[in-house]
Amino acid sequence: MARILAIDFGGKRTGIAVTDELQIIASGLTTVNTKELISFLKDYISKEKVELFLIGEPKQMDNTASESEVLIAAFIEKLKKAIPDMPLKRVDERFTSKMAFQTMIDSGLKKNQRKNKALIDEISATLILQSYLYAQ
């Protein structure tokens, strides 16, 4: 089997999480400067076998798309051109940032450490990936 890679897309930073090769465990991988995201993904899939990209789909409480969806849609178009053979799926990412922050509190991180937005993005990507795995 190959890994599944989850993307919590952001205007400045993007959180990345991956599964193990058996697709059992979701782990945070890193946070990438969004301008470097496509080159990072190309490099990663040249070294690791990946079968699917999951991209977070931010929605409002009434199920409409959030304002950041415009940026994500543009990124997806670029991604499809850059890596055309990779399947991708969207995953509802409502509340992942709040859940990521709560995870940081629950794991005992100090207030200073909880201000690390890159870590929140990485944990959010992991939550997106976990929710997908649970649904399978």
Automatic annotation (TrEMBL):
> What's the chief localization of this chain?
cytoplasm
The record's Gene3D superfamilies line, in alphabetical order, gives:
YqgF/RNase H-like domain
Q: Where is the YqgF/RNase H-like domain?
A: 2-100
Q: Would the keyword DNA-binding turn up in this protein's UniProt record? A: no
Q: Which UniProt keywords apply?
A: Cytoplasm, Hydrolase, Nuclease, Ribosome biogenesis
Q: Which Pfam families match?
A: RuvX
Q: Which SMART domains match?
A: YqgFc (SM00732)
Question: What EC number(s) does the entry state?
Answer: 3.1.-.-
Alphabetized InterPro entries for the sequence: RNaseH-like_sf, YqgF, YqgF/RNaseH-like_dom, YqgF/RNaseH-like_dom_sf
Per UniProt, subcellular location reads as: Cytoplasm
Does the record bear Cytoplasm in its keywords? yes
Q: Which family does it belong to?
A: Belongs to the YqgF HJR family.
Q: What does this protein do?
A: Could be a nuclease involved in processing of the 5'-end of pre-16S rRNA.
**What NCBIfam families does the annotation carry?**
RNAse_H_YqgF
Q: What is this protein called?
A: Putative pre-16S rRNA nuclease
Q: What is the lineage of its organism?
A: Bacteria, Pseudomonadati, Bacteroidota, Flavobacteriia, Flavobacteriales
